[in-house]
């Protein structure tokens, strides 16, 4: 009996062990298959072989002499290093980045060749018919138009010839929700007919968004030469007229009077404006090509489309500061060219520089040089030796004097109080451990604008870094930071400070004037249109930018290749496009741009530069007007009501309101409101030295 029990227990234990062995084998098999799957999926077969060789060599190592022992460990170290490099290659995949780079380079060439071929073939085909020749003539006239009105007239004629006027009249489109736009337009019209002010306020407060229903789709503005579809224009007209009804509404009884009081209407328009968001004009860096921004600004002012928020980096900060201290009329006078100082860039070689940096052998060969050659060689040697000694090519004195003459000694707050323009200038600290700063009337109210622009223009190795200057309580000019911090070019690390503008001023729509030479090289979709080639290049460049950014963070954080942490990575990876991007230098040859990037324009060439900026901006006017019309109407309503509120408070109390009230709120142009479609008012009251 006992032997039978012990035999049964033994069998049970044996079966249990057998079951465990089977389970273990199955688990091992599953793990092996799982590992084999991932080795196959990731292409690590060669790595597996290398690891197996290392393990086998170490496991079966046999050496009889010290030399063999040394050779074995040398072999083992080489194999481990090889494994580490292969692992690094598998993780960082540099071959994928290289393939993307090569494909992008080829696509660039294909795109440029395709553009040229399509243009040549298209023009050749058009020349075969009378209608085609007329199209070519109108297109040429469109490109060479002298004024916006002339361009619109030619564009209308060209649209009729090409049948694009029918496209504008037809509300149907797959690029936006046209049925909702039509329905909403009818709702607003019905509320206006019924004089239902409360209903209008409710609908406007709940339904105003800038890009809702696809109205921001770029394809809606790339078909017609005149503008977008009539149904969209009618929708915007109805909204602005409805806002006018609310603004001018008076109550019929005490309850209505309370609800339609100035305070309540101001709260309504302020909250609606905040929900709708703001636009900002971004002026990029680009050396002497920053003068092209002048034409863009002129075109926007003439069409009442210049945003209140304006940001400039490097060369863009010069134009931002210049218009920040002037109203619209004075900006147009300033940009006429007669009063513009064009001598911003210059070597500024002093007699002390010549005495210190002229080589001793140069005077002895003066007679051997052609006429004027000695002065040219002398200045070249002075610039070279000064650069080797002080690490900058041009002195800031010439630039500083020009900036001060153009902008005066205004601070950011003084300029805002005077004109209502919110000027923003980007500067980069000299220390690599600090971050770029955005200077404006909120973040740096007492900083003098020309000193901020000078710091933003201080291109590394071209200009020396500079200090920011500010006004103290007595109006004296003093260093902004007592520690003596130095600042340099703002466009290197933050050409377009979109994120910071969104935080400070609720900006959600960016109009970019882009004149950087490297823009098309590092940019994506907007620089190459909406075709498949442009979309593919956009995808590849986004992938490469993300790769460079992440690799840079990994490498620089490990203190390897720290010398790259000088703004080169942000220069490549930052964003260069906005919601609407205007490129005035798009049709200028690259060699011409390179040759003129650090040379001042002449009096003869400046009108052409101004005209090029205008012509680049005109095709975008219809889209900018659509995107900004409601915003500008809200802005004007808020300013008008704030002025009314200030006057009402003054009448009640019999004295002026205490505190700092910007002059543009109570200016005649703000108080005498006739139409919300007018541009936001600005006031210029005298000059400041």
TrEMBL record:
A motif (GXGXXG) lies at residues 285-290. InterPro entries: Acyl_Trfase/lysoPLipase, NTE, PNPLA_dom, Triacylglycerol_lipase_N. GO terms for molecular function: triacylglycerol lipase activity. Residues 281-502 form the PNPLA domain. The keyword RNA-binding does not apply. PANTHER family: NEUROPATHY TARGET ESTERASE/SWISS CHEESE D.MELANOGASTER (PTHR14226), TRIACYLGLYCEROL LIPASE 4-RELATED (PTHR14226:SF10). This is PNPLA domain-containing protein. The lineage of its organism: Eukaryota, Sar, Stramenopiles, Oomycota, Peronosporomycetes.
